[in-house]
Amino acid sequence: MLILAKIIVAVVALLHLYFLWLEMFAWTTKAKKVFRQFPEHLFEPTKTLAANQGLYNGFLSAGLLWSLIITDPIWQIYVALFFLGCVAVAGIYGGATASKKIFTVQALPALIGIVLLLLHLFL
Question: How much helix, strand and coil, in percent to the nearest 5, is found in the chain?
Answer without folding.
Answer: 85, 0, 15
